Request: fold
Amino acid sequence: MDSVDILPLVWFAVIAFGVFMYVLLDGFVLGIGILCGVAYGEAERDIMMNSVAPIWDGNETWLVLGGVALLAAFPPAYTVLLPALYLPLTGMLIALIFRGVAFEFRFKARRKLGWNLAFVLGSLVATFCQGVTLGAIVQGIEANGAQYVGGAFDWFSGFTLLTGFALVAGYALLGATWVVMKTTGLLQDRAYRWSRTLLTAVIVFMALVSVYVPFLDGNYAERWFGFPHALLLVPFPLLGVVVSYFLYRSVAARYEYWPFLLSLGMFAVGYGGLAASFWPHIIPPHLTIWNAASPPETQSFLIVGLLILLPFILFYTGWSYWIFRGKVGRDMGYH
Reply:
């Protein structure tokens, strides 16, 4: 295999890693926003938002990295994806803006009801739009080469609505287990209860999506039920069952760190299962990572910049989470 074949694999891995990091890191922040809608009073919202205040605005770096890498390394995929998903992506960006503005202004406002509402709805809508976008990619986007040939609402289906609601439950679970890890007292007790309820919802949604995916396209069905492809995919649902079991046990035993780590593990398993279902397509059912790749010279040139940029992003992310580790709320007069 020469560099012409290897470079698309490298860039696909970079994009997958960037999107995955965004889902994990901004996922629990969006989950915090969703759960602020059921928090008891401003004191709890203050603690929940302060637990992510030092680190939340750096998470979008991974989303930008994934988007820019897609444009540079796989331009046909980018030009198909944008018009196909214009409405949910626009809704996501507007919601993220509302969430960001509300996050900053809420702490300075005397009347917080409007900013609370903007923060909760912004988080909820952004999450739902991300889930719809994921579902639309999995169900397939019709293209003629690098040209989208579908309509403005082809993304809308029962499956995309299912993935939208599934991601809302998943992000809320991440947020609940983050609150478990970062708080104490009554708020932590409520977070344990949220975690149990949301874990049940996530398991149900993951089961529904897993059953739905093979029937979206014959290629999916062949991969999941045909030999030998099924041998490569079967570990994902099995891992999902194992991780779900240990997550339930860790919540029941009131562990503080394991619920969040295992919630991340559930996302990793689900993400891996979906990616394996449509590999090697970057935009199913027509665009693979090879026929959507930019020229090797372009990808080689971009690798140089990536090797400089990515270590800085990883270092800054790890350093910021390490610096702001520990509990919040103990010095805020809330117990």
Summary: The radius of gyration is 20 Å. The chain has a mean pLDDT of 84. Residues 31 and 172 are 4 Å apart (CA to CA).
